[in-house]
Design brief:
Structural class: alpha+beta
Distance between the termini: 84 Å
Number of helices: 36
Subcellular location: Membrane
Keywords: ATP-binding, Calcium, Magnesium, Membrane, Nucleotide-binding, Translocase, Transmembrane, Transmembrane helix
Protein name: Calcium-transporting ATPase 4, endoplasmic reticulum-type
Membrane topology: Multi-pass membrane protein
Strand content: 15-25%
Organism: Stylosanthes scabra
Radius of gyration: 39 Å
Shape: elongated
Length: about 1050
């Protein structure tokens, strides 16, 4: 693959490498005039490069393509899935279980297939997990592939003094001369050397984060300009939306800005860290390994006397006797007990829980692409959000309309509601509906006709076509309505979204357009009214339109001279709107058009020649009549302010990182609540460049409250995320553009926009917002974090597994046969190990175990008594279930308090009332753990017989089981009432009443299974009687 282009001047590596490399690094095309660029790249704009020179440069720089990084092989991905402590433990357990089954699972010369069930189940779980993991990892490279798709495939190039209309973009080299026109994708990073049209605008927001198309010129800028400030450069992957130009290629391939993003995505994908969930599971796995190892050694040592004996002679042990067979046997027992303690179902349970979480998030418009991100989202401590399209609607909207009053010294201001392109979405406050005066009618006419945009509706969304600012003006016209007495309103299409604009267009037919250019900063149209009267309608930058105006129209339509006081009044209104981060446009018109009185758009009319030369436009747009101005912006989403407040209450910091203008971003941040209205932003709001120059960047990021980074480039965003992660923060990063992809990849959870997001951003993300809404992120965080507090921690689950599996399972091996065993028909050789009825029983019992364990947790928090058992003696505070289920929102509750409560001889206290759901849950956790242990012990009694009642097979028929139950309960009492052990397991002693609650919740497992056994016996008897009757017949 090609090496990518560098600035011209680099020669063969063997020749003057150091000199040319230095030259390449210091030459900045954006800061040099056109002549210097031609000299540096040794090319003429008129003739282009020669074919010989092109071949020479291609040998040096390679192709204009992004590198293809070799992804991991499928086998390395598979092996990587086993680089996990818990998975390795399960794998080891499966292998040991398989070996034991192979050697000990033989009966009557045949292998007992049931002995292989456990290892096969574990293997199956591991295979499923590996497949899911490989599938997710293989998606990692898709972001790089999506990046290649936004590159241009062809370019119009000048070479050998000839124009090549369609050259493969990959064949471009530094120094090539390229022509761009409207709709073209830029094929490489290039210096604009000549404008063919009066205006050149490019849409580069996906790369730079700017919310509007950017005007370009061929004039040099400062050397230290950021990417947004390089107005004489066009960048690969961006699109020309207006104008034509000639450019000089400066960088190709991996040296372009998009190539740098490509490299950053690749680097970020190589440095992905484990999610918080995986870290917890690894810690759990390490603890599990240590405990299982100790169990193996302890059990083996306890039985050492059975395979190793000796005699004491003269006080010294001698005559050692060792039995290898018995040693191996007891080792197998130790290993079998250890394997039984391994929670082989845990990976499957985790995957299932995360999958259920993705469904609930999808209902809130958050589409999860990677399962672990569900848990990660719930741990989020910092949200780094883009501004445009996430905090704002990414739909320009008029928010203020300023018209002229009854006299020259007064202005009228109207607030315009609505934040989208929906014409019915909002109204104009204090608007004279159906009674517009002449001045307001003229504003509506100019806004509707001097406009090339449109608005359509698709899938319940309103979409702008053309310039967003012009679309916003048309929406404003619809909100203004039609003049009073508009009899022919039905002549406009009643089904049209823009029927008012259509009405104006039918009355005033456009016959010529004076295109916008960067010098006069305005656009004009010549119209022919229904009265056959020609007029000029103009909109543009307020200062420029005002400067070319000599008169002003009053409210009643009368026209008076525009004096200095009137100019000052308009400029004052402009200043107020500009300081509020509004983009302002002024409106004017002109009735006296002598040259165009007989013009109707014909090419042979003398006036047509005036329109062909843009240098005539300023003189045509002179002596204007000023009529008013409007303020526009990309408004914040209505629900964002509350979402920011929710984040603040939950202790989640919000940082806004945008490529947009600093003043605009600060105004939006104040409005949505990231900053308070009078907050000093000197240390809170920095440009990306200023942040990178700070000595202690981490200290800046540690500040309380919100932070803003404007004019941020991809590398700035990536650095912010990296530093936050180094500081121990769990970072969620949002974005929609190509420039966001590296940071999305690097963040703990990357969140891409579903509507406006580029495919590059989506492929680099962990989650996609279907509605592009910041509040959806907050809702998803809440969905991941809410629900009742976790009832058990890993070390407690491991304890349950060890205590309830080992001793009772061993003791059940001493079960006597059922009393009615000889009354049952022999089991068929092809009968399944577990039939459907037994499976149903297990499912019912399992459901009750889950309900009881969680239920007792909820009971303690919400009930003062249960089944006559008083639970209020410890003095704990009762809450509602709604409060418990939404405990994550506790900081937002007013007047919530929680009292300390007793636990044994100690008192549990909290630093804040909301800690009642964190440190205060220790009693509820102890109850859940105790119920789980008790319920498993009672369930072991159910296992005395497959379908016989405890009345016929009472517990004392197997004294070993009673002993095992006593041992298990004794061990549980030990960790409850020995302070050191209670602290290790995160539990507290229980009172007598609390033990009664444990027994009351756990004991029904026996009743439930007794009922199920009774149903099973009745069904079996009925089935047997039916078969007997059939045989007799």
């Amino acid at each position: 693959m090609g090496k990518g282009g560098q600035d011209y001047g680099r020669q063969e590596k063997e020749k003057k490498s150091s000199d040319d490399s230095s030259d390449r690094d210091t030459f900045k095309a954006w800061a040099r005039d056109v002549r210097e660029c031609e000299e540096h790249f040794k090319v003429s704009v008129k003739t282009g490069l020669s074919s010989e020179e092109v071949e020479n440069r291609r040998r040096i720089y390679g192709s204009n393509e992004l590198e293809k990084h070799e992804g991991q092989s499928i086998w390395s991905l598979v092996l990587e899935q086993f680089n996990d402590t818990l998975v390795r433990i399960l794998l080891g357990a499966a292998i040991i279980s398989f070996v034991l089954a192979w050697y000990d699972g033989e009966h009557d010369g045949e292998k007992d297939i049931t002995a292989f069930v456990e290892p096969l189940v574990i293997f199956l779980i591991l295979i499923v997990n590996a497949v899911v993991g490989v599938w997710q990892e293989s998606n990692a490279e898709k972001a790089l592939e999506a990046l290649k798709e936004i590159q241009s495939e062809h370019a119009a190039v000048i070479r050998d003094n000839k124009k090549i209309a369609s050259l493969a973009a990959k064949d471009l080299v530094p120094g090539d001369i390229v022509e761009l026109k409207v709709g073209d994708k830029v094929p490489a990073d290039m210096r604009v050397v000549e404008l063919i049209s009066s205006t050149l605008r490019l849409e580069q927001g996906s790369l730079t984060g700017e919310s509007e198309a950017v005007n370009k010129s061929n004039k040099p800028v400062a050397e230290d300009s950021d990417i947004q400030g390089k107005r004489c450069m066009v960048f690969a992957g961006t699109t020309v939306v207006n104008g034509n130009c000639i450019c000089l290629v400066t960088q190709i391939g991996m040296e372009t800005e998009i190539g740098k993003v490509h490299q950053q995505i690749h680097v970020a994908s190589q440095s992905e860290e484990d999610t918080p969930l995986k870290k917890k599971l690894n810690e759990f796995g390490e603890t599990l390994t240590m405990i299982i190892g100790l169990i193996c050694i302890l059990v083996w040592l306890i039985n050492v006397k059975y395979f190793l004996s000796w005699e004491y002679v003269d006080g010294w042990p001698k005559n050692f006797k060792f039995s290898f067979e018995k040693c191996t046997y007891y080792f197998e027992i130790a290993v079998a007990l250890a394997v039984a303690a391994i929670p082989e179902g845990l990976p499957a349970v985790i995957t299932t829980c995360l999958a259920l979480g993705t469904r609930k998030m999808a209902q809130k418009n958050a589409l999860v692409r990677k399962l672990p991100s569900v848990e990660t989202l719930g741990c989020t401590t910092v949200i780094c959000s883009d501004k445009t399209g996430t905090l704002t609607t990414n739909q320009m909207s008029v928010t203020k309309l300023v018209a002229i009053g009854h006299n020259i010294d007064t202005l009228r201001a109207f607030k315009v509601d609505g934040t989208t392109y929906n014409p019915a979405g909002g109204k104009i406050e204090n608007w004279p509906a159906g009674d517009m005066d002449a001045n307001l009618q003229m504003i509506a006419k100019v806004a509707a006709i001097c406009n090339d945009a449109g608005v359509t509706q698709a899938d319940n969304k309103f979409v702008a076509h053309g310039m967003p600012t012009e679309a916003a003006l048309k929406v404003m016209v619809e909100k203004m309505g039609l003049p009073k007495g508009s009899k022919d309103v039905n002549s406009a299409s009643t089904s049209s979204l823009l029927r008012c604009c259509e009405w104006w267009s039918q009355r005033e037919r456009r016959i010529a357009t004076l295109e916008f250019d960067r010098d006069r900063k305005s656009m004009g149209v010549i119209v022919d009214s229904s009265e056959r009267k020609k007029s000029l309608l103009v909109k543009g930058a307020v200062e420029n339109v005002l400067e070319r105006s000599s008169k002003i129209q009053l409210r009643d339509g009368s026209v008076v001279k525009l004096d200095a006081n009137a100019r000052k009044l308009v400029l004052q209104a402009l200043h107020e709107m500009s300081t509020s981060a509004l983009r302002c446009l002024g409106f004017a018109y002109k009735d006296e058009l002598r040259e165009f009185e007989t013009y109707s758009g014909n090419d042979d009319h003398p006036a047509h020649q005036l329109l062909l030369n843009p240098s005539n436009y300023p003189s045509i747009e002179s002596e204007l009549i000023f009529v008013g101005l409007v303020g526009l912006r990309d408004p914040p989403r209505e629900e964002v302010h509350q979402a920011i407040e929710d984040c603040r209450a939950a202790g989640i910091r919000v940082m806004v990182i945008t490529g947009d203008n600093k003043n605009t971003a600060e105004a939006i941040c104040r409005e949505i609540g990231v900053f308070r209205s009078n907050e000093d932003l000197s240390s809170k709001s920095l440009t990306g460049k200023d942040f990178m120059e700070l000595r202690d960047k981490k200290a800046h990021l540690r500040q309380d409250g919100g932070l803003l980074f404007s004019r941020a480039e991809p590398r700035h965003k990536q650095e912010i995320v990296r530093l936050l992660k180094e500081d121990g923060e769990v970072v969620a990063m949002t974005g929609d553009g190509v420039n966001d992809a590296p940071a999305l990849k690097l963040a703990d959870i990357g969140v891409a926009m579903g509507i406006t997001g580029t495919e590059v951003a989506k492929e680099a993300s962990d989650m996609v917002l279907a509605d592009d809404n910041f509040s959806t992120i907050v809702a998803a965080v809440g969905e991941a974090a809410l629900g009742i507090p976790e009832g058990l921690i890993p070390v407690q689950l491991l304890w349950v597994n060890l205590v309830t599996d080992g001793p009772p399972a061993t003791a059940l091996g001493f079960n006597p046969p059922d009393k009615d065993i000889m009354k049952k028909p022999p089991r068929r050789s092809d009968d399944s190990l577990i039939n459907m009825w037994i499976l149903f029983r297990y499912l019912v019992i399992g459901m009750y175990v889950g309900i009881a364990t969680v239920g007792v947790f909820i009971i303690w928090y919400t009930c003062g008594s249960f089944m006559g058992i008083d639970l209020s003696q410890d003095g704990h505070t009762l809450v509602t279930y709604s409060q418990l289920a939404n405990w994550g929102q506790c900081p937002t509750w007013t007047n919530f308090t929680a009292s300390p409560f007793t636990a044994g001889n100690s008192v549990v206290t909290f630093d804040t009332p909301c800690d009642y759901f964190r440190t205060g849950k220790v009693k509820a956790m102890t109850l859940s753990l105790s119920v789980l242990v008790a319920i498993e012990m009672f369930n072991s009694l159910n296992a005395l017989s497959e379908d016989g009642s405890l009345l016929s097979m009472p517990p004392w028929v197997n004294p070993w089981l009673l002993l095992a139950m006593s041992v298990s309960f004794g061990l549980h009492f030990l960790i409850l009432y020995v302070p050191f052990l209670a602290k290790v397991f995160g539990i507290v002693p229980l009172s007598l009443n609390e033990w009664l609650l444990v027994l009351a919740v756990a004991f029904p497992v026996i009743i439930i299974d007794e009922i199920l056994k009774l149903i099973g016996r009745c069904t079996s008897q009925t089935s047997a009687a039916s078969k007997s009757k059939q045989k007799s017949e």
